[in-house]
Specification:
The protein is α/β, with parallel strands linked by helices and 420 residues long. The protein is built from 14 helices and 14 strands. The longest helix has 31 residues, at 283-313. The two termini are 20 Å apart.
Length: 420
């Protein structure tokens, strides 16, 4: 039963027609360059409601493009939320800026003006407003604070593509919005990323930077696309049940690691080994992006619905806190449960035996990582979220409501509560 009805930790969300588009780009020699690039830029800009959009090869490359196009003073401080994807402050450090970390709200995982304002100094050049796990931060207030101090705002929308606050898309509030189209996000395009801006000067500089930037090799793009398509196939719930799930069960039985990706210092080491630079989005990725734009709002609505099903049933579960939704139309790209760190793995293993895979988080308290240790000393002793307390559940709409109910029942049973 668990084998067939099992739930993967993440599903790759590829739209219908992706394989056909991939095949036609490969056969037609349009993997790197082609007409989809301009069209995607235009359509993404229209959907976001912003005049300028530029593609990049990944979210991190888009963030590098954003910082290079902003052209802050050398050595300027950039304020980041302490709990985030650590590659992003690493990009800032690599470019010669000084990452400074501010607290986050333990309920929403995001930073607001009350966390950011105490970190502002005469050297602050920018604030990174991150919309973590698909929930918008209080972006209107963050931008208002930054404007009074002449500070730039870059929005990290890697988890929040399609989130609106008061009807306006995130990524269009600050000076630049940064998006990721990686396989684990809600709008994967066989990888890729983008920036969005309404500022003509930033747009001009971004265009100049991209004009000199390389595009990944055709073979690299094609191999990556086929491997992501395979992951799409293997994360369909039925396929997952007969392929990866039995392997995970065996690993659990043998007391082995559950196929977790590199995080923390290891992730940063791997990133720096890639010799990071700005590189361009490909025609193949843009063509998938055009397909994604037709589906993404409905997809986000489906994830929101599934998250609601779970949240409604996890209200009073001891040692487990469901994510709280306070701002805008939270889309739950990941659904992070906060669990007592001493019990987190026990819950994970229990769920896996019950057919439900879950994921430890790629986010980290950055001040615990080697490149940022200095930024974390003294005043940053904290009691906010940490990677050890998070368990991410997949709530993508490919998972049926019945399965969401089963996940809720399993979590309740683990905590010794009645199942509904
Ligand atoms: C919050 C956040 N920002 C940015 C990124 C970078 O995106 P990419 O993996 O496309 O480089 C990620 C990736 O996981 C992320 O989680």
């Amino acid at each position: 039963m668990a084998l067939i009805g099992s739930v993967p930790r993440r599903c790759v969300n590829l739209p219908p027609g992706s394989l056909r588009t991939l095949a036609s780009c490969v056969i037609g020699g349009r993997v790197q360059d082609g007409p989809a690039l301009e069209e995607f830029r235009k359509k993404l800009g229209e959907w976001l409601g912003i005049p300028h959009v530029f593609g990049a090869s990944a979210g991190r490359s888009a963030f590098q493009l954003a910082l290079e196009a902003l052209g802050l003073q050398d050595g300027a401080e950039i304020i980041f939320p302490i709990f985030t994807f650590p590659v992003i402050p690493m990009v800032a450090k690599m470019l010669g800026y000084e990452p400074v970390f501010c607290e986050v709200d333990p309920e929403t995982f995001n930073s607001g003006p009350e966390h950011i304002a105490p970190k502002i100094t005469a050297k602050t050049g920018a604030i990174l407003a991150t919309h973590l796990f698909g929930q918008p931060c209080p972006i209107g207030e963050v931008v208002a604070l930054a404007r009074t101090r002449g500070i730039r705002v870059v929005e990290d929308c890697a988890h929040a593509c399609g989130v609106r606050v008061g009807g306006k898309q995130v990524g269009t509030f600050g000076d630049i919005g940064v998006f990721s189209f990686a396989e684990g996000k809600n709008m994967p395009c066989f990888g890729g990323g983008a920036i969005a801006t309404a500022d003509d000067d930033i747009a001009r500089r971004a265009r100049d930077i991209l004009a000199k930037a390389p595009i990944p090799a055709k073979d690299t793009l094609t191999k990556k696309a086929f491997s992501i398509w395979m992951k799409w196939l293997l994360t369909r719930p039925f396929m997952f049940g007969v392929t990866a799930y039995p392997v995970l069960r065996l690993k659990l039985l043998l007391g082995q690691q559950l196929m977790d990706s590199a995080v923390g210092n290891e992730l940063l080491g791997q990133f720096m080994d890639t010799n990071p630079r700005v590189s361009r989005l490909s025609n193949l990725q843009a063509a998938i992006g055009l397909l994604q734009l037709k589906h993404i709002d409905a997809f986000n609505e489906g994830a929101r619905h599934n998250a609601r099903v779970l949240t409604e049933r996890l209200g009073e579960v001891p040692n487990v806190k469901a994510p709280r939704s306070l701002e805008g139309d939270h889309i739950y790209v990941y659904y992070p449960l906060t669990v007592d760190p001493a019990k987190r793995d026990d819950l994970r293993h229990y769920l896996l035996r019950y057919g439900i895979d879950s994921k430890t988080t790629d986010m980290a308290d950055c001040t615990t990582l080697s490149p940022f240790l200095k930024a974390g000393d003294k005043e940053n002793k904290r009691n906010g979220p940490s990677e050890a307390s998070i368990l991410e559940i997949c709530v993508y709409p490919v998972i049926s409501e019945n399965k969401m109910l089963r996940i809720a029942r399993a979590i309740r049973a683990w905590a010794g509560l009645p199942k509904s």
